[in-house]
Design goal:
Layout lengths: L2 E2 L3 E4 L11 E5 L6 H10 L7 E4 L15 H25 L6 E6 L1 H11 L7 E5 L21 E7 L7 H13 L3 E7 L8 H11 L1
Parallel strand pairs: 3-4, 3-5, 5-6, 6-7, 7-8
Antiparallel strand pairs: 1-2, 2-4
Helix pairs in contact: 2-3
Length: 208
């Protein structure tokens, strides 16, 4: 099944789940669309897998920077989280268990995934937070609770990234670890705001 709605592009999605099949929810960044994530999955050799490509209205998931005061983003963030939750629920209704589901997000999409997943912990196939972290100002206190049951989590940013500071990405990695995720954190020295070959290789490694 391949079709598009205003909220998502459904690619290779069967009418019901196979017990061993892995399905992906892919979430693009600001000023991007699903084609960016299609390229990412293609580079990683997993574009053939059933995938829901989440599509942000106006190419943005929330209006301000992700570390702005939470009230600046609250309305947009709430709607975006509900959209991701709806896609997640759709996969569950098709018969996909959480341990068959992988989330792949980049930049603003990675921040959205961080926020959603830290508030919906479970045993997933894998989680890729590519240049991202949880949402809110520096002094915000989130009380995340639950158990990821050793889910592989790969989280990244760069020392020179102007949008996602290493401190917040590191803090986010620690939150996943507190909830029993198997976290791999990589802070690149001089990688620009993009998905580099080393990140693609890690995606391949975890899937294979």
């Amino acid at each position: 099944m391949t079709h598009r709605t205003d909220a998502a592009l459904f690619c290779n999605l069967p009418s019901s789940a196979s017990p061993k099949e892995v399905v992906i929810i892919a979430v693009h960044g600001r000023n991007q669309d699903e084609t960016f994530m299609q390229d990412v999955l293609s580079r990683a050799g997993i574009a053939h897998l059933p995938t829901l490509y989440a599509i942000a209205p106006g190419k943005t998931w929330y209006p301000d920077k992700f570390m702005a005061p939470i009230e600046n983003n609250e309305a947009g963030l709430k709607q975006s989280l509900l959209q991701v939750e709806e896609l997640h629920r759709h996969l569950n209704e098709l018969g996909f268990k959480n341990d068959q589901i992988s989330f792949v997000g980049f930049s603003q999409g990675a921040c959205l995934c961080s926020q959603y997943l830290l508030t919906h912990p479970s045993k997933y196939h894998s989680l890729f937070i590519l240049t991202g972290g949880y949402v809110g100002q520096q002094d915000i206190q989130w009380n995340f609770e639950g158990d990821f049951q050793n889910t592989p989590v790969y989280i990244t940013t760069s020392q020179i990234d102007e949008w996602v500071p290493p401190k917040r990405t590191t803090e986010t990695a620690k939150q996943f670890e507190k909830l029993n995720a198997a976290v791999t954190l990589t802070i690149f020295e001089d990688r620009p705001h993009e998905i580099c070959d080393a990140e693609i290789e890690m995606v391949k490694k975890i899937f294979n």
